[in-house]
């Protein structure tokens, strides 16, 4: 699934919480390449950053995950994106924010800039204030889906994660209470109609061997996603970012950013093939 993982860190304990999620994600695969990256503001900070990453590399080694350490000087988002492009990583995993540490990233800003620009999957983890991480990961995966084939591009990732962890997959479709059809007529929908529109997608996903539950909702997509994360105790949201899907036309990039700001569950985002970075 993921052979080369990049984990950007800013030196804070909160940013390190991404390690729990990403190591569980890659631990059940064949060992690939894991890189730890810290981007600092000046050359004077490099030695401290290297020492910090060396400590984390030792922790990962104790979990049988070998890792390299890398320190760059410059702009965090630009250096992360450039490093991925040069080294060919196929996953970026990072916390959505941190506090101080070796380097003072405005973490939400960095995460959103990467979300808008990266062409590889991005695993985003919101740090928890409690000391203990959850005992289990990836038991309930929520996949917001607009019915398009572009949204289906996350299926291979969901299928592999679900097969590794025995996960239940919740397919969610959200539509507006009313919208204009191509002829300009106002069309209203019911939750039952939204649910019915998801059946064809569900059939494809069940044929892939997934245990699928369907949810149809009306309203704002980001708000419904957040509500369902809490209601269903979801521990991973998998989302495709794109912007064209029939009558409903979710702008998935903006939905992903809104979910990023408010969701406490890890978020795995994949830009649909053919979609240009913002």
Explained architecture:
The protein has helices spanning about 15, 20-25, 45-60, 75-85, 105-115, 155-165, 190-195, 200-205, 220-230, 250-260, and strands spanning about 5-10, 35-40, 65-75, 90-95, 120-125, 140-145, 170-175, 180, 185-190, 210-220, 235-240, 265-270. It is α/β, with parallel strands linked by helices and about 280 residues long. The strands form two sheets. A ten-stranded mixed beta sheet has the order 3-2-1-4-5-12-11-6-7-10, sandwiched between helices. It has a two-stranded antiparallel ribbon with strand order 8-9. About 45% of the residues are buried.
Count of separate DSSP helical elements: 10
Helicity, as a percent range: 25-40%
Within CATH, the superfamily of the largest domain carries the name: HUPs
Helix/strand order, N-terminal first? EHHEHEHEHEEHEEEHHEHEHE
Based on the coordinates given, report the CATH architecture of the largest domain: 3-Layer(aba) Sandwich
The stretches of 5 or more residues where confidence is low (pLDDT under 50) are 243-251
The N- to C-terminal Cα distance equals 26 Å
* Rg, nearest Å: 19 Å
Number of strands: 12
The fraction of residues assigned to DSSP E strands is 15-25%
Q: In terms of structural class, how would the helical and strand content be classed?
A: alpha/beta
| Arrangement of strands in the largest sheet | 3-2-1-4-5-12-11-6-7-10
CATH class of the largest domain: Alpha Beta
CATH topology of the largest domain: Rossmann fold
Number of domains: 2
3D shape: elongated
């Amino acid at each position: 699934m993921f052979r080369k993982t990049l984990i950007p860190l800013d030196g804070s304990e909160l940013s390190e919480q991404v390690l729990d999620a990403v190591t569980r994600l890659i631990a059940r695969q064949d060992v690939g390449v894991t890189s730890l990256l810290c981007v600092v503001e000046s050359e004077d900070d490099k030695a401290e950053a290297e020492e910090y990453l060396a400590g984390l590399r030792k922790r990962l080694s104790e979990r049988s995950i070998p890792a390299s350490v890398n320190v760059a000087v410059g702009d965090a988002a630009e250096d992360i994106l450039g490093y991925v492009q040069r080294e060919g990583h196929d996953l970026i995993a990072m916390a959505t924010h941190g506090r101080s540490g070796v380097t003072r990233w405005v973490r939400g800003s960095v995460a959103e800039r990467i979300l808008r620009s990266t062409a590889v999957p991005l695993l985003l983890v919101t740090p928890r204030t409690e000391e203990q991480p959850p005992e289990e990961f990836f038991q309930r995966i929520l996949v917001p889906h607009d019915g398009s084939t572009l949204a289906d591009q996350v299926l291979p990732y969901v299928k592999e994660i679900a097969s590794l962890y025995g996960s239940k997959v919740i397919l969610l479709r959200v539509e507006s209470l009313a919208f204009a059809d191509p002829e300009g007529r106002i069309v209203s929908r019911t939750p039952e109609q939204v649910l019915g529109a998801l059946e064809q997608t569900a059939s494809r996903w069940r044929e892939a061997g997934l245990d699928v539950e369907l949810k149809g909702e009306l309203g704002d997509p980001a708000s419904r996603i957040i509500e369902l994360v809490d209601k269903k105790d979801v521990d991973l949201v998998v989302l495709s970012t794109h912007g064209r899907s029939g009558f409903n036309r979710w702008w998935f990039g903006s939905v992903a950013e809104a979910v990023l700001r408010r969701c406490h569950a890890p978020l795995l985002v994949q830009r649909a093939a053919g979609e240009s970075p913002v």
